Amino acid sequence: MRVAVVGGGVVGLSCAFELSRRGADVVVLERDRVGHGASFGNTGWVCPSFTYPLPGPGIVGEGLRAAFSREGPLAIRPGLDPSYLRWLWAFRRNCNRETWLHGMKAFVELNRPTTEILDAYRDAGVEFEMHDAGLLLVALDPKKVDVYREIFRDLASLGFEGGIREVSGQEARELEPMLSTQTNGGVVARVDRWVHPLSLTEGLAGWLTANGVEVREGVDVRATRSGIIETVQGAVEADATVIAAGISAGPMLRSLGVRVRMVPARGYSVTYPRGGSAGPSRALYLADARVGVSTYEDTVRVAGVFELGARDAAVKAGRLDAMLRTIDPFFTDWRPSEARGGTTWAGIRPLTSDGLPLIGRTPRGQNVFLATGHGMLGVTLAPATASLLAAFVLEGRADPVLDPFDPARRA
Ligand SMILES: Cc1cc2nc3c(=O)[nH]c(=O)nc-3n(C[C@H](O)[C@H](O)[C@H](O)COP(=O)(O)OP(=O)(O)OC[C@H]3O[C@@H](n4cnc5c(N)ncnc54)[C@H](O)[C@@H]3O)c2cc1C
């Protein structure tokens, strides 16, 4: 079977890998360069312990308060676009405990094989940077850990065995000596890992090319219909298409008469070169600031901010500087707001109104499949998404684990 995968981000490349390994004749069509969309400058966490749907009880109040802040980590852009307003309304409707638990359960099931699949990538010869020391969550205000305690309790009640362990401030500082004495205790999520995101997408693309898969960059897909993918550069034929175009999937789906409720949420990162006293030695979640830090072989990356409705990937200096200032107090001997030589980046998370990605067959078009809407969790969820979707495309039957992610659901 010939399968075209539209989009060369972490989700599309993982799908291409799984399809190719199962014997499909795969072509990847990427508008720009592989791995240079949302998958580029994120923190690369593969974090089943922090996998939960965004709409939850209490989030609306918090979001509305934050909407009026010019510098806070959360922002809701005002807008009169009817599809944006419909999304906001649906999101609000989904902020309840029942929907939240339904989403948590769906994620626990989806994530069960995640780390195993990543290990299988390595075993198959995909080369990428991965760290498995677990994530360390710390807070300045001890109350900020409470919300995560609740999340971990819910995860455990749903059968998640994540090796989550509470640590005192002293223990946290022993694990990461660069933390300041202002930090209180937190949590170690032992099962979680972090990858260098570009190394993963480049590793997958390298494996694909070495194994005879055509990875075509600079190919802009406009529409897809039965067996034909229309691109600006000419038509491509395939028996099935997987649309993994992140936030840009919408227009392609409209050509099929399919509407998806998805809005952009912009986030930022700064990547500093390592060396000397530049930054901590592991992955950290700084709870009060809602900022993640990932340490790689040569760099340290700090990422955060959630600007709902921001459509372009422009870096707004005011909000980025504010993000960096909020994390200075977490560290001793390192002030990210004053550190030199950092590379700034902004990326767009594709967000559905129930916080669950869209994985499965499109409601119209028997041979068109969808893998997008992974929001804050695309790196974490890509391995399991790809494994289940590849089986669906090639065998024609969906694993029941995919039911909650059906693109035809009322999200
Ligand atoms: C600041 C920040 C930090 C984050 N941290 C994490 C984290 O630690 N862990 C985690 O799991 N997730 C994280 N995320 C979320 C994660 O980055 C995304 O969920 C993920 O990258 C989405 O991957 P994707 O492949 O769906 O999209 P993308 O990476 O955007 O890939 C889509 C691709 O499709 C291509 N495309 C679009 N339109 C067309 C077209 N018409 N024709 C052909 N190609 C097209 C694009 O060029 C792009 O390369 C973070 C996001 C941000 C912004």
Output the keywords.
FAD/NAD(P)-binding domain, 31% helix, 11 helices, 411 residues, six-stranded mixed beta sheet, alpha/beta, single chain, 25% strand, nine-stranded mixed beta sheet
- Determine and state the CATH class: Alpha Beta
CATH topology annotation: FAD/NAD(P)-binding domain
List ligands, each type once: flavin-adenine dinucleotide
- Distance between the first and last residues' Cα: 31 Å
Q: Helix count, per DSSP?
A: 11
Measured on Cα atoms, how large is the radius of gyration?
20 Å
Structurally, the number of domains stands at 1
Mean pLDDT: 92
Shape type? globular
> What fraction of residues sit in β-strands?
25-35%
Low-confidence stretches: none
State the secondary-structure class: alpha/beta
Report the CATH architecture. Answer: 3-Layer(bba) Sandwich
Q: Helical content, roughly?
A: 25-40%
CATH homologous superfamily (4th level) name: FAD/NAD(P)-binding domain
Largest sheet: 9 strands, mixed
Describe the structure.
It is a single chain. By secondary structure, this protein is of the alpha/beta class. It has a single domain (2-405), classed as 3-Layer(bba) Sandwich (FAD/NAD(P)-binding domain). The chain has helices at residues 10-21, 59-67, 82-94, 97-111, 114-124, 146-157, 169-175, 197-210, 249-254, 317-327, 378-395, and strands spanning 2-6, 25-30, 45-46, 74-76, 130-131, 135-138, 164-167, 186-189, 193-195, 214-217, 221-225, 228-231, 234-237, 240-243, 262-273, 284-286, 291-295, 299-308, 343-352, 358-361, 368-372. The strands form 4 sheets. Strands 4, 6, 7, 8, 15, 16, 17, 18 and 19 form a 9-stranded mixed beta sheet that branches. The protein has a 6-stranded mixed beta sheet with strand order 10-2-1-14-21-20, with helices on one face. The longest helix has 18 residues, at 378-395. The protein is globular, with a radius of gyration of 20 Å. The two termini are 31 Å apart. The structure holds flavin-adenine dinucleotide. Flavin-adenine dinucleotide (FAD) is lined by residues 6-12, 29-32, 36-39, 42-45, 220-221, 244-246, 248, 267-269, 292, 303, 347, 349, 372, 374-380.
